Amino acid sequence: MNICMIGAGYVGLVSAACFSEFGWNVTCVDKDKSRLAELESGKSPIYEPGLDDLLARNMSAERLVFTGDLGPAVKNADIVFLAVGTPMRRGDGHADLSYVYAAVEEVAAHLDGFTVIVTKSTVPVGTSRELERRLLAARPDGEFAVCSNPEFLREGSAIQDFTHPDRVLIGTDDDRAREVMAELYRPLALRNAPVMFVGRESAELAKYAANGFLALKISFINEIADLCEELGANVQEVASAIGKDGRIGDKFLHPGPGYGGSCFPKDVNALIRTAREAKSPVSIVEQVQRVNDERKITMARRIEAAADGSIKGKTVAVLGVTFKPNTDDMREAPSLVIVPMLQEFGATVRVYDPQGRRQAEPQLPDVTWCESALDAVTDADVLVIVTEWNEFRALDLHAAKERMCGSVLVDLRNVFQPDAAEAAGFRYSGIGR
After folding, report:
1. What is the reported pLDDT for 241?
2. Which positions are annotated as active-site residues?
3. What DSSP line would sit under 233-253, residue for residue?
4. 170, 198, 226: which is the final residue of a domain?
């Protein structure tokens, strides 16, 4: 089977690498010349555990190639995946489909024989039918079917999620396309992974609904954490208790500074806009968005309050700026709100992140970038944990305290135990306990 993957961003690159690992021939097309040069030299432009090895192995086996030439890749393909960006559109907050439409226009000119065209990007409900309409207008003689195959990958564990999925969701109403897609995912079906065939609208909406529900769980536990602080309860004990209920589950019940990343903020907003246009508003999801936006602002004020109400003229050490650990992704990261607010409050900010500096440095000007956690805390008055990288869990709190001028530790991810932090001499402030 020959696959053309249009887009070598996060979703496209991980998907291309994993499909080639299945044994399929994958040509990944991207217009970014610097990204192509990096990939062709064997380096991944994104940080994802295990991805470099996967790319190297399949490029060496000649199952995975990168190119800027779309024509031959489409012409030889059994399946063409659209994995281009769908960012929030300025003004109305809808998903911007301009890159998807541009890709389809190019694809139409090179179709040769029956081809399955698949939206891997997250797109609004009805996009597959609109793409089909555009393709028919451009190539009334073309043989093709348009499917929806949304991804459910978590950054930091994307390869595991792709190769051991909870489900593979395919939206199609074409019998030939169903056969092709079933063959594509046969390696996963042989491992008993659920491969679900549904209508195209159902597949498109399911992606938004899944992310909306997960975002709801995050905002819910953040509000419960605030309530725990007022009532003297421990949010970790509460989360553990309710998470044991099979109807609820224990995932996404970890309080913190709010969700970020490339998916949740964009998809929650798109779901809200879609529902409003359909005159069937999702008021619960709208409240989730408000809670999350306010959460990041509240966290900055919490840091200020922990430092006796003022950080003016003080040095704050921030550990972790990516939106989650095991990624270098800075999109909608809570740190992009928290750090500038700390600066507005008059603080000098020192930052360390194991992987985020390259992406974060242009977005967080006027901070001091450090080479390690201990380097960051040197001469700091306040230490703040924003992203729960594993290496921070092993931080020697006694050594950190000795390097600091102050004693305030604000743990926005509950990485440390309060007793251990206080034994090291810190005035500890966690979340919901």
Report:
1. 98
2. 263
3. --HHHHHHHHHTSTTT-STT-
4. 198
